[in-house]
Every structure is written in C-alpha cells, then in structure tokens.
Amino acid sequence: MISENLKLAVKKANLVVKEVAELSGVSKGTIDNWLSESKNKTPRAYDLYAVCKALNITMEQAVDGDAGIEYVLSIFHLSQELTPQEQAIIMAYRQMTDKAKDFALRQFQITYEHETAREVIESAELQALSGIEDFKDSLKTNRQKIPKK
C-alpha cells in the first residue's frame, strides 16, 4: 500500500526519485526499495517523514491502509512528544544487553514504587496536619465558649 501511495505522490509532485532523494536527504536506493512492491521494505519513520515532507504529503497519507506502518507512525508521533533526555534514555536502553535491561527495568520499578509510596505518605501527612490544625481550631473555639469562673 505504501509503495502505491508514494508512487502516486511522486507522480503528482512531478518529480523523479533522484529529486525526491535530494530534497529529502534519503538515499535513492532506500526510496526505490519502498516503491518496489516486490521488496516490501518498511521505512524508518524519520526517513518516511523526510520523504513525505519533500512530496508535500502527510505520513498518514503515505501509509494509509498499511497497519504495520501505521504502528511505526504512531511510535514516530510518540517520539516527537519525548524530551531529549527521555529519547537519550530510550536509546541507551536499546543498546543494553538483555541482562542489563532486566536490571534497569527492576530499578525503574523500585524507583517508581518508592516515588508512589512517598506521594501517598506525603498526602497522608498533609491530611493529618490538616486534621491537627482543625482540632486545634476547635479547641480554641471551645475554650472561648467555656465561661470563666
């Protein structure tokens, strides 16, 4: 499906693949692979983004109807929402061994649970302090109501 959509976009833009490659910065061979129905290559999201921009179409238009590539597209959009620090963490994670990944995930889970527990404790402390202040206020009010002898 993507090959058909891109072929149509190239034709509508009145360009040849070499020109699309120059405009997008994606190699001609890579674009040729996408356009070849027999190769059925899944594009990398950033490369697809660059080609779509060069062709003046959206990525959604390029992948219309291709569920596998729509998934890649959803990951691309998510990656645009990540901060540079979050992206660096993900890239570092991808380079880890499986054993290191397991360790990192356990540490992340422990930290998350610790932070969640701390938030619960802080909330309980605030409620308790608020209750103490209410109690003090009620004592003051009651003392004022008690007649002096």
Secondary structure topology:
Elements: H1 2-12, H2 17-24, H3 28-35, H4 45-55, H5 59-63, H6 67-81, H7 84-94, H8 98-145
Helix pairs in contact: 2-4
Task: Summarize the structure in words.
α2 (17-24) crosses α4. The mean pLDDT is 80. With 149 residues, the protein is an all-alpha fold. 79% of the residues lie in helices and 0% in strands. The chain folds into 2 domains: 2-81, 434 Repressor (Amino-terminal Domain) (Orthogonal Bundle); 93-145.
Task: Provide a concise account of the structure shown.
With 149 residues, the chain is an all-alpha fold. 79% of the residues lie in helices and 0% in strands.
Structural shape: elongated
Q: Determine the structural class based on helices, strands and strand pairing.
A: mainly alpha
What is the architecture of the largest domain at the second tier of CATH? Orthogonal Bundle
- Assigned CATH superfamily of the largest domain: lambda repressor-like DNA-binding domains
**In CATH, what is the class of the largest domain?**
Mainly Alpha
State the total count of DSSP E strands: 0
Largest sheet: none
What are the segments in which pLDDT stays under 50 over at least 5 consecutive residues? none
Span from first to last CA?
Answer: 93 Å
Radius of gyration: 29 Å
Order of helices and strands: HHHHHHHH
Averaged pLDDT: 80
β-sheet strand percentage: under 5%
Tell me the count of domains: 2
